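**Sequence, C-alpha cells**
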Amino acid sequence: MDSSTRIYTKSHHISIERKPDLEVSAAKAFKGDPNLYNPEDLLLSSLTSCHMMSYLYCCIQHKIDVISYEDHSEATLQVNPDGSGKIIKVDLFPKIVIADSSQIELALSLHKKANELCFIANSCNFLVYHHAKCSAK
C-alpha cells in the first residue's frame, strides 16, 4: 500500500489511572465516529463543568441556595483552508433555579466571578460568553 493513501482510524481510548476508559474519535467532519466523544466535545464539556463548579462555589460563598443548574453550551470552531483550526468562542447558556427570588440579581452577577475562578476558562485563548438565566422556585 502506498503511504500516501494510508487511512488511519480516528477512534481511540483515553486511560487515566483508576478511572474508566473513555472512547474518543475525531469529529464526524474529520472522518471520525460521530457516536463517540471528540476532543472538541471534551474541551467544551470541561469548560462548562468547570464554570458550573466555580459558580456553585460562588453561590455557597453568598449563601444562595441553588435548586437546579443546567447548561447547553456551544463552541464556535474556525477551520482554515490548510486543515488547521481552533475554537474562537464559547457561549454558555446556564439556566439556574434558586430558592430566594430576592437573590436573582446577585446570582446572575456571580457568573463573572465564576469565570475569573475557572481554571479551564483561564487556560483558554478564546472568549467565553455567558447568557445566564435565573429564576426562583
Observations:
- The domain at 11-136 is CATH 3.30.300.20 (GMP Synthetase; Chain A, domain 3).
- The chain has a mean pLDDT of 93.
- The longest helix spans residues 39-61.
- The helical segments are 39-61, 104-117, 119-123.
